[in-house]
Design a protein that fits this description.
mainly beta; OB fold (Dihydrolipoamide Acetyltransferase, E2P); Glucose Oxidase, domain 1; four-stranded antiparallel beta sheet; 5 helices; 40% strand
């Protein structure tokens, strides 16, 4: 059968999902292989070194660098408090004494008799890595982290902002084409992850943030609203580290675009389930997609239960695809034909194409580079 390879988004009702949970630098892994964990459990810990502060001590005290240690009241490695005296001069007249105060609470790291500087370091900052998903530890990376595995509903999306968060999934609209309005955001949605329809505006996101909503999943978003949300123009970048108080996941694209019916129905079927989401997106080399992971309760699993297999092949006739370029941007359909020979398109370029059939029965000829697979 004719086929071609193209990037795709995974959408699976039930599949094996793994998540690598890594520390930013070496530390301690505090769980064991085979442990069954909740998403909120800590799996590894470490400490980030504190910020360094430099003091030009010799200028402040009016002394020579080689004599600095004689005037120090503290030594390297000593803990000091903010505004504590760490060095002072010893004049005959006490009124002329000059004292050097610590600008921070921390530790004296270096006393240099060459430069005349004192380096102080703030206390180390504890870093914890959480399991993120309800699942099982299947691999231990010594001093680095773990790999978690779970059986879950898994949905990749087009774009997102905000990092990892976990909450109960609720549906805030009736249909995938509905707009998520402020009236639909209820106080009971605190600590929840809510599913909208085709569109959400900045004022609605703000209301959700104030009520304590942890995440919003919706079909589309205006790029100007994204700029208001972030406070700056994102441009081409890696997202996921934004401190905006909420995680936002866009399943279809920018503009008012109805959420794909299958995506909406799949989310609706998991209403009330504990859900993990991450808005991290990278569209350059090493593509990273926003993800929605809804673990299944496998405690009563029976042998032979069906699990979706990952798709590791090219496109074939009948596959679902999403068009990612105008004039059909955001539309979802199925591949009707895959002509082997390159053909000339409206721009007069000669490219390999495919024919897409949409749910209403209409068709379109599209360059293969203008689509992405929806792996279901």
């Amino acid at each position: 059968m004719t086929h071609a390879y193209t990037p795709g988004l995974r959408i699976a009702e039930k599949t094996k999902v793994t998540s690598q949970r890594s520390l930013p630098l070496l530390g301690d892994v505090i769980v064991k292989k085979g442990d069954v964990l909740k998403a909120e459990y800590v799996v590894a810990r470490t400490h980030l070194p504190g910020k360094v502060h430099a003091i030009n001590a010799v200028n402040r005290l009016g002394i020579q660098p080689k004599d600095l240690r004689e005037y120090m009241l503290k030594k390297e490695g000593d803990v000091v408090q903010k505004d504590e005296i760490i060095a002072e001069t010893k004049p005959w007249v006490k009124m002329l004494k000059t004292a050097l105060l610590s600008p921070i609470t921390g530790t004296i790291e270096t006393i240099s008799t060459v430069t005349g500087q004192i380096l102080l370091r703030e206390p180390p900052k504890p870093i914890q890595v959480f399991a993120y998903i309800d699942g099982t530890v299947i691999e231990i990376m010594e001093k680095e982290g773990v790999v978690m595995e779970t059986t879950a509903t898994f949905i990749q999306s087009i774009f997102g902002v905000g990092g990892e968060t976990v909450g109960e999934l609720v549906i805030a609209v009736n249909k995938p084409g509905d707009v998520l309005t402020a009236e639909r955001i209820q106080p009971t949605y605190k600590d929840k992850i809510i599913v909208g329809g085709a569109f959400v505006q900045h004022d609605v996101i703000n209301k959700a943030k104030k009520l304590g909503v942890r995440g919003i999943i919706t079909g589309g978003l205006d790029d100007e609203d994204l700029k208001k949300l972030l406070g700056y123009d994102l441009g081409v970048a890696i997202t996921g580290s934004e401190d905006i108080g909420i995680t936002l996941i866009i399943t279809e694209g920018f503009g008012k675009i109805q959420m794909a019916q299958r995506t909406f129905e799949l989310l609706k079927s998991r209403t009330g389930a504990k859900t993990s989401i991450n808005g991290a997106t990278q569209i350059r080399a090493g593509v990273v997609r926003p993800e929605i992971i809804i673990p299944h309760d496998t405690s009563g699993k029976t042998s032979g239960e069906e699990i979706d297999k990952p798709i590791d092949r090219g496109m074939e006739i009948g596959d679902s695809v999403r068009i990612i370029r105008v004039p059909h941007f955001g539309k979802i359909g199925r591949i009707k034909s895959l002509p082997f020979s390159p053909q000339k398109i409206e721009t007069e370029a000669t490219v390999r194409i495919l024919e897409v059939e949409f749910p209403d029965g209409s068709t379109a000829i599209v360059p293969r580079t203008n689509v992405e697979m929806i792996e279901t």
